[in-house]
Specification:
Elements (H helix, E strand, L loop, with lengths): L4 H8 L12 E7 L4 E11 L5 E11 L2 H14 L4 H5 L3 H7 L8 H21 L3
Antiparallel strand pairs: 1-2, 2-3
Helix pairs in contact: 1-2, 2-5, 4-5
């Protein structure tokens, strides 16, 4: 399987890996076909304008190189963004950032997008937004 150098870099040196204790939102998603499971944890705070932003974000992923790389990238793209900006991050943004993914691994980028959205939805549910 041919991965780009960027995919391999993010697989070997993932950013924001780990768990946030007392996270404000947790998204858990999985793909039963490939067996990948991903947790995204977010910490939210208000910025100077009173907008809710993702102050911290971490992930735990059990899966292939593409699943780990896409989890890492989605956390980098979302960190510091408002919740509404973060919700607009798509799997296409993740794939573009990585310089492409093999077609058989595209579903991993979708998992990363879904995990981020699930964490934001969890936060909103807990805070009745």
């Amino acid at each position: 399987m041919d991965y780009t150098e960027k995919v391999l870099e993010y697989f070997r040196n993932p950013r924001n890996m780990g768990r946030i204790e007392n996270a404000d939102g947790i998204g858990k998603v999985g793909n039963p076909v490939c067996g990948d499971v991903m947790w995204i944890y977010i910490k939210v705070r208000k910025n100077e304008k009173g907008e809710e932003i993702i102050e911290d974000i971490k992930f735990e992923t059990f899966g292939c190189a593409a699943a780990i790389a896409t989890s890492s990238v989605v956390t980098e793209l979302a960190k510091g963004k408002t919740l509404s900006e973060a919700e607009k991050i798509s799997n296409k943004d993740v794939v573009e950032f990585l310089g492409g993914l093999p077609p058989i691994k595209k579903h991993c980028s979708l998992l990363a997008e879904e995990g981020l959205k699930a964490a934001i939805n969890d936060y909103r549910k807990k805070n009745k937004k």
